[in-house]
Each structure stands twice: as structure tokens, then as C-alpha cells.
Amino acid sequence: MIRFNYIRSWFFLDLVSSLPYGLLTFITKDSETSPTNLLGFLKVFRLLRLGRVARKIDKYLEYGASTFFLLMLSFCLVAHWMACIFYLIATEYDNYEPHGWLQVLGNLIGEPYMYKNGTNIVDRNSGPSIPSMYVSALYYTLTSLTTIGFGNIAPNTNS
């Protein structure tokens, strides 16, 4: 009974969301903007369950505790999204500016960006690791969202 109910409701979405799209991209050696990588965006639809999970949490927790839990969960989700946008702006739109926060981070931690053959094109395989870039972006986002960090990270470009 439970199995058939699950197959009729969330099975297809879970199946599509759990496919290893990163592995498919690696095997086919497609670019980052390939359709295979864009299919990985389907994992976001698993968040549709959040409303149902919230209703179940309300049944078992006090109203104040469940509200606090959902508020913190929402805050963490917004902070994650904003950190990803902050990183995206630095890599795609600012094009690894020489005085941008990614260049400064790379120099501070001893992993500077290298340039390809003496040009102004940055080698994306050099520089800080993805976890250190994410932690830095998340730190800036959290300090901005909580309004305790203004002035902690100063702008480095004119744009």
C-alpha cells in the first residue's frame, strides 16, 4: 500500500532528481552549459516537498519550535542562494577582475590565479578551491544578511 502510494506521488520526481547528472557530464565530456548539466537543475524540484514536511513537523512540535525551525531553514536556504549568486557574479560577470574578491582570496590563501600564456584570460583550474570560495561567499552573505559585517569586506573594484 505504501509503495503504490509513493509510486503514484513522489517516485518519479525523486527518480529524476537522484540521477547522477554530474557523472553523465563527466563521461560525455560536455561543457558546463550542456543539456546534461541543465537537467541537474531538476533537483531543485525536490524542494516542493518542503511544505509537506513542514505540515508534518507542525504535528509533532510546538508551534513556536516549528516556526523557529522553518525560519532558520528558510534563512539558510536564502543565504546559500545568495552565496551562489555572489560567486556567479564574480566568475561570470566580473570575469575574474584583477582586484575582485576571488583574486584577493587567492592571494590571501596562497593559491593565486594563473593566466593563460601571458594573456588576460584566467585559467579556471588555478586559484582557490571551490570549498574555500563557497565559504568566503557564504561568510559575506551571512554577515550582510545579519547586518553585522558591513565594512568587514571592502569593495576592491570600481564597478
TrEMBL record:
Name the membrane topology term.
Multi-pass membrane protein
BP GO terms, sorted: regulation of membrane potential
- Superkingdom of source: Eukaryota
Q: Name one GO cellular component term.
A: voltage-gated potassium channel complex
Q: Which residues form the Ion transport domain?
A: 4-158
- Gene Ontology terms, MF aspect: voltage-gated potassium channel activity
Q: Transmembrane stretches, by residue range?
A: 68-90
**Subcellular location(s) of the protein:** Membrane
Pfam family, any one: Ion_trans
Cross-referenced SUPFAM superfamilies:
Voltage-gated potassium channels
Q: Which UniProt keywords apply?
A: Membrane, Transmembrane, Transmembrane helix
Is Transmembrane helix tagged as a keyword? yes
**Principal cellular location given in the protein's record:** membrane
* Cross-referenced InterPro entries: Ion_trans_dom, K_chnl_volt-dep_EAG/ELK/ERG, KCNH_animal-type
Protein name stated in the entry: Ion transport domain-containing protein
